[in-house]
């Protein structure tokens, strides 16, 4: 999450992507399919990514100057339990925010600010009324004004949302993404043309969010507009190739319906390359194994067994506990007259406890020269594997 936040900051360093948008920004820079969060698990990085360098410097100046002033008070009265306890509490909260997102919750952050304000207000007689303290006060005023304005904007957005005026809602408060999609869904239900305009507006506001692109692609797909659907699925994949691997199979089917065999082959090749580069194939994932199996099955139906082999080999990597993948791959090797490879696949299956007995049965059949079921025989069983 830290890396995603820093990459987001580098892409838009001055003003950030907008407050509360990390869940969207992260999707663009996500390297793994597993692991997703609304927050950076570091409040300071979150401010940097969402609000930019100016807001970050203002916020850090506010904290540093406040701590400096409070520390001067603490040094003059080291036996005051309220001072020591309060200073320890705000220091612990500040340090913990380097590793978590407590301050994203208003109740926690307001408690922190309340305690900080009380410590700043303690009689500091004997201390110089220096410029840093005046800056702290002005920074607090600026923050209060920003919170006030932001709050009223959100309330206005909520008002228009409840009235059903989604265009004004979107203009005032385009985040979070979930609400925006709900608005688009409602418009699509009433009027597809108006929904399409809203959908394109949503995508223009969040061009780097792959989920928005495939949300609109789904709308076009169910409306039978396959060309437009393919366009937005492709955009979603470009922004984050491994955000949702099922998009590859969806887009591949669309290319097949449109008769674009070459585009489908390029798409699947790109998918395979990204899988090899990532660590995804090193983790067990039955849902991914099923999708890889069905991509291989498409090639099998086209008579391209070699391509099927490359995809079905991946299924045994991510779902080694399921014998059906091993046996179907072995059957495919036998159909290609590669008995040694079929035997090797079945032997590798024996290292896992659950599929061992099933694979042993097929090894015995192989040693006796008995025929196997044709490749794809176990499709129904594979389809029934829980995700």
From TrEMBL:
Segments passing through the bilayer: 43-70, 82-99, 105-123, 135-153
Subcellular location(s) per record: Membrane
Entry membrane topology: Multi-pass membrane protein
Presence of the UniProt keyword Transmembrane helix in the record: yes
Domain O-antigen ligase-related: residue ranges: 1-60
TPR repeat ranges, renumbered to this chain: 210-243
Pfam family, one: TPR_8
Name this polypeptide is given: O-antigen ligase-related domain-containing protein
Organism field: Candidatus Shapirobacteria bacterium CG10_big_fil_rev_8_21_14_0_10_40_9
Lineage: Bacteria, Candidatus Shapironibacteriota
């Amino acid at each position: 999450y830290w890396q995603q936040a820093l990459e987001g900051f580098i892409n838009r360093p001055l003003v950030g992507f907008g407050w509360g948008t990390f869940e969207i920004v992260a999707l663009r820079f996500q390297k793994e399919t597993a692991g997703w969060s609304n927050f950076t698990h570091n409040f300071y990085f979150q401010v940097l990514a969402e609000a930019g360098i100016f807001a970050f410097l203002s916020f850090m100046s506010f904290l540093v100057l406040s701590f400096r002033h409070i520390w001067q008070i603490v040094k003059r009265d080291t036996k005051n339990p309220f001072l020591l306890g309060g200073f320890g509490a705000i220091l612990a909260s500040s340090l913990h925010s380097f590793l978590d997102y407590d301050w994203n919750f208003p109740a926690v952050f307001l408690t922190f600010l309340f305690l900080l304000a009380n410590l700043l207000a303690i009689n500091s007689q004997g201390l110089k009324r220096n410029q840093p303290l005046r800056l702290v006060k002005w920074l607090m005023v600026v923050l209060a004004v920003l919170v006030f304005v932001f709050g009223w904007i959100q309330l206005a957005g909520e008002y228009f949302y409840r009235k059903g005026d989604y265009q004004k809602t979107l203009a005032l408060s385009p985040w979070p993404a979930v609400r925006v999609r709900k608005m688009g869904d409602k418009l699509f239900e009433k009027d597809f043309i108006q929904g399409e305009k809203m959908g394109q507006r949503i995508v223009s506001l969040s061009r780097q969010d792959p989920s928005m692109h495939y949300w609109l692609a789904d709308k076009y797909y169910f409306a039978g507009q396959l060309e437009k659907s393919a366009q937005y699925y492709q955009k979603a994949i470009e922004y984050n190739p491994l955000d949702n691997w099922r998009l590859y199979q969806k887009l591949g089917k669309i290319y097949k319906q449109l008769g674009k065999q070459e585009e489908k082959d390029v798409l699947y090749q790109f998918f395979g390359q990204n899988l090899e580069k990532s660590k995804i194939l090193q983790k067990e994932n039955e849902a991914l194994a099923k999708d890889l199996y069905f991509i291989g099955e498409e090639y099998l139906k086209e008579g391209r067994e070699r391509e099927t082999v490359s995809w079905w080999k991946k299924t045994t990597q991510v779902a080694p506990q399921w014998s059906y993948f091993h046996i179907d791959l072995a059957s495919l090797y036998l159909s290609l007259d590669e008995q040694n490879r079929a035997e090797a696949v079945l032997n590798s299956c024996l290292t896992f406890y659950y599929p061992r007995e099933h694979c042993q049965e097929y090894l015995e059949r192989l040693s006796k020269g008995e025929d196997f079921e044709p490749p794809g025989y176990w499709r129904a069983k594979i389809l029934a594997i829980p995700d």
